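Readers of this paper often ask what the protein records in our data store actually look like. Such a record has a labelled line for the sequence and another for the backbone structure tokens. Nothing more is needed to write down the fold, since each code stands for a local backbone conformation. The record that follows is passed on verbatim for readers who wish to inspect the format.
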Amino acid sequence: MRGFGLCLLSVFCPALAAQERQFPPIRVAPLAEDAGFNDEPSMASVGDGSLYVAWVSFRDGADSLQVARYRAEGNAFRSLGNWEIVGGRGTFVLAPQVVAAGDRVYVVYAAEHRRNWDIYAVECTARGPGKPIALDSHPAADTNPAGAWRGGTLWVAWESNRGGARGIYLASYRDGKVTPPEPVSEGGGSSYDPSVAVDAGGTLSVAWHRFADNNYDVWLRQRTPPGPWGPERRLTKAAGIDRHAFL
């Protein structure tokens, strides 16, 4: 049985600047061809010009988390390495995201360990991945992480059902130390699927969607260092379903 594969694709489109009606050149390269059933890809480019791609691959009856490094050369991609971060019997992985951090990346993801879903981060360099770091160990189900990096600090937001309804939580990692998770959403309905970003001035922003008043809407909360969190801001109020904010 053939596996379900992923492809790496790059589009370079200088013609659009001149408003020319041309298709840009496209590079396509297979990832993990014929190896497992593969989905949930995430990719980031880093300072040395290389690309890191992470994805979930179901192999030999269990999930695994794969990461690969590439460099675009002409009309093709050159493979610079392929590694397994976690895998083997009893492994369950969800929602990896690659976060650029200078000339390296962090891969943040959710994984089940001893029947408990927690959030992890692992540093990946040209030499491959390091050891995964647990960002929380709460008995609640913690999933859907999102990360941002600036100035040596990795910020990770995720959703958790600690306290009953699902809420948004945040922790940071710097110099080998993880801060205690703190709540970002204030309640009033279950909150899901966060996104996080840090601007050049250090302002931290977290967005998510919430089910409240019989509707899904997008919310935002920000903190400017060294001050406290500002109030939640509801960004959408339309009758339609507004979900999956991305910062």
About this structure: The chain has a mean pLDDT of 90.
